[in-house]
Amino acid sequence: MSIVNQLMAAVLAVLIGLASGTVYLMSDSSKEMLIHQLESHGQDTATHLGLYLAPYMAAHDTAAIETTVNAIFDSGFYQQIRVVDADNQPLFVKSTDAHISDSVPEWFVHLVEITPPEMTREITNQWQKAGSIFVQSRAGYAYEQLWRGTEQTFIWFVVLSLFSMVFISLLMRYILNPLKGVEEQAQALSQQKYIEQSRIPGTRELKQVVLAMNMMVHRVRTMFDEQAKNIEEIRRTAYQDDLTGLANQRATFTQLNERIDYRRDFGHGHLIHLQLADLQELNNQLGIEKANNFIRACAGQLNELARLTEGPVIGRISISELILLTDMTNQDQLERELNKLADSLKDTYQQLNDNRRGDAPFFIGVAAYSEQGSSKELLVNARQATGKARQDNATIFCSSATNTEQQNSWHQHVSSRIVNGDIFLQAQPVKSISDSPTVIHNEIYARILNQENLPCMAGEFISVVKQLNLLTALDRSVLNAAIDRLEQQPEQALGVNLSNESVRDTTFCDWLISNLSRLPRPEQLCIEINETSVLNNLSRVALFRDQLKQAGVRFGVDNFGINPAGFSYLYTVHPDYIKIDGSLIRELDSSAEDRFFVKSLVTVAHSLDIQAYAEHVERDTQLSALHQLEVDGAQGWIHGKPAEL
């Protein structure tokens, strides 16, 4: 019960006690007053009767006495009238039962006892005692008057109490409203959300409570921000190039290997290799500071080109080499963007070189990527393309070549499979890290059959799906299959990874939320979104996450920990779990830097009550290191390759 309701209950109890005491005192006082009225009424009646009946009593004229007494008694205000002579012998007695009106409850009669007094008057006639008259008023009259007064008092009490309760309730809620804010702060703090009250109450005690709560929230937020900054500094030191701000050599090669050799979900694309011709000559011509500015310009232009790709791999792999893995497959678009990049860098070089004549000292080579190649082969091909550009004295050389007819046939095949929902599912388990690991959930992967009716991985057809804008249709098919399976086997937990396009599609999200009602156990479904998609659509993802939470579905962030934007978004989204990107796990058992960084990520996640899982775990030594780092779960080939459901 809230403090306002408790105070209202206390006030109501006091009012009831006060009213009960008031009614009792008023009833007792009214009772005494009514008894006095009955005494006065009886005495007056006895006096008046005595004055009139004195001669008749002296003459013992019972007929006259009876007639007179009956006339008065029939008014209904008397319970008994008794006339006696001088010897106390009855001349006439008139009495009736103590009748009480039906309007007076019986319980009230039993509760309040009223005994009307019998009043007497001695009667004299010609200076001789003629007798006495005894009059007792009717008790029913007193009960009726007392009940009517009590009833009216109670009704007014109820009316005034209700009015007072409403007024007091509004007043208390206004005065204690800051406590509601403190309650919301405490609840938000338990969910690792930080709210500060802007309205400070005037009441001294409440003011101190609100200020203390705001100070605590501010300090906790500051602690988390400092922790996040420290971890971000660790990430920059370990994985970021100081000069360009891009990923350094180690991080770039790890991410390239992760996307192409392990996950194989990038699809078709191109690797762009930008190389400075002679760094020593560049330093001699421009000076070290301007040469560094030119290198930063190269990184900045390449980073702008990377914005056209969702989840690119970009970095500096040597002092004079930058690379970008892009999913851009249209040859004309690629050449157009590269020409814009080259022209911009040439202008920058001329400005830094004080507009002196001379060719910009850089070359760009482009190698096409398909799912069959490896990361090492792709990098070799890109470097060969750059060497060809240097040999031909050309700025750009693209070694990509595609069979248009074969490409169109494959596009048509993929489109037909996806539109018709002709897909099948494979799954890989995420298991807890313990002595007896249990399956947390199974992550689902979509597969189709190629033109030879052989299963092909997502990387072989995902680029075509992107080009044909069928990612949402693919996600819908996968979710339909997952929901159908969970209806039949509600004890099995499944995880589905949504694309950036599906997250942005309001119609798709509404469709998903409406279909979740089919699930007997919605907590067995996990929806995952890539970290890059989360950061690109933060407000939309936060709303979508709230909808999933209300539906009882778990939510996770995939490929966590590699985006340069950091992870402060965890405050806003607050997922149920994160999956640490495999590029941070691959060398975990041999790299102290990776272990320290992963430990920091796990600490942040656990401080927000978020579970932390690791992706692409392949070796027992990795699993042992994850156990020491208190990671909650692991996914990878150590638990088996993806297998058909």
Automatic annotation (TrEMBL):
PANTHER family the UniProt entry points to: CYCLIC DI-GMP PHOSPHODIESTERASE PDEB (PTHR33121:SF23), CYCLIC DI-GMP PHOSPHODIESTERASE PDEF (PTHR33121)
InterPro entries tied to this protein: Cyclic-di-GMP_PDE-like, EAL_dom, EAL_sf, GGDEF_dom, HAMP_dom, LapD_MoxY_N, LapD_MoxY_peri_C, Nucleotide_cyclase
Ranges of residues in domain EAL: 407-645
Ranges annotated as spanning the membrane: 6-26, 154-176
SUPFAM superfamilies: EAL domain-like, Nucleotide cyclase
GO biological process, one term: signal transduction
Superkingdom in the source lineage: Bacteria
Gene3D superfamilies, per the entry: 3.30.110.200, 3.30.70.270, EAL domain, LapD/MoxY periplasmic domain
Any GO molecular function: cyclic-guanylate-specific phosphodiesterase activity
Domain HAMP: 173-225
Domain GGDEF, first and last residues per copy: 267-400
Protein name: Diguanylate cyclase/phosphodiesterase
Keywords: Membrane, Transmembrane, Transmembrane helix
SMART domains noted in UniProt: EAL (SM00052), GGDEF (SM00267)
GO annotation, cellular component aspect: membrane
PROSITE patterns named among the record's database cross-references: EAL (PS50883), GGDEF (PS50887), HAMP (PS50885)
